[in-house]
Amino acid sequence: MSTRSNAVIVRNLCKNFGETPILRNVSFSVSQGEAVVIVGASGSGKSTCLRCINRLEEPTSGTILISGKEISGPVIDIDAMRRRVGMVFQHINLYPHLSAIGNVTLALRFVAGMNRKAAREQGMAYLEMVGLGDRAEARPHELSGGQQQRVGIARAMAMKPDVMLFDEPTSALDPELVGEVLGVLEKTKDAGMTMILVTHEMQFAREVADRVIFMDKGSILAEGTPQAVLDENEGERVQAFLRRVRH
Amino acid sequence: MEQLGHYFFNFASLADSWGDIARAFGTTILVSILTLLLGIPLGFVLALIRLYATSRNRFLALVRFVLVFYADFFRCVPQLVVIVVIFFALPYAGLSLTPIASTVIGVGIVLSAFAEEVFWAAIIRVPKGQWEAGRSSGLGYVATLFIVILPQAAKMSVAPLTNRGLAASKATTLGSVVAVPDLLSVTSSIQSAQANPTALTVGAILFVVLFMPLVWLCRVLERRMETA
Question: Which residues from chain A sit within 8 angstroms of residue B143, using beta carbons?
């Protein structure tokens, strides 16, 4: 696969917290428009791996390329890089002092430099995409968890990033609210967005992922189609994990 | 009862003093405002420096230490002593300040120490996820601080700052020790001269008139904080 069609390339990524290795030589790539789901037990390093990709965690060593540009060097413009990478958090992290539309337009105005009117137009389009056009003026505390996370997705998507990172976007939600967020994620995938998701939703991984990466103790243990990794893999650790998460 | 009226509410006895009391009231308002204008912005800047020294660079540990010591020291030391040192000791270092300047700086410094702690506590109470949300969207450190973090921290600071501001404004009456003709010292002098405390009653009423709206404002803001 040529570099050109790869949205994200991760090579020999290592990350230590103090003396403890969290990621050991992780390498994978994600093609444009591909949805890759990373699964694994907690502590397997999957969230850290995701957070290294926009350098919310600093890699200890290794190379990361986004749209062909290396972003892991010491001299890159980290803010310009992050602009091209959207992030959705487990704990959502909406700005509580701003309305839904205020959340979505903040980066449009202060990072992308759009004027108030243009930012609002673009922001509203994304709020409508996640089905919340009528809740634009609501504060986060007036929204349900599922609605908040949909605003979180709209906030990241509105910047039209090259790739979207989802760090357990449904783990903090009440079970009955998970579906609406997964629905938005499917829509995002159908729109051709390149996505890397860390999730425990195996059913979602089966239905939506182009590829599944199984991580264990900081390394990639298995990688392939959802079917190959989640259904046909005979590996003991994969099976043990699946027994634990299977509902 | 009549005795009480004679001693505390004998307004006729103040016939010649109203001008002095009005001027003293003006002085108290002026000194209070100057103290707030020095203490709160200074506390804000100190909190920002502490934040920068904490989050950015390990070599700034000394700066951080000095700041924390400043805040701890001036929160502990009596404000009266600070005023006295500024007014009576600084001239030996070649710096002579007027009574009003000494009072404003003395009380202002103590206020800045409390304000620094209030801003600092509010800034670090904003969850880490807010920094991550801002930074991951491409906002720089300073932009995230000013657009995302400080608006939330400011909201948490308003009520405790109002309290500290009230305490500092009242503490400006300590300026009487270096002969600031403020409301309390002037009404207290009138009391001595006339052997009648009615002037102090007037002083107290004026203090309440000045500060009560601020106390109410503080309560409204606190209530709004709870519902937000």
Answer: 110
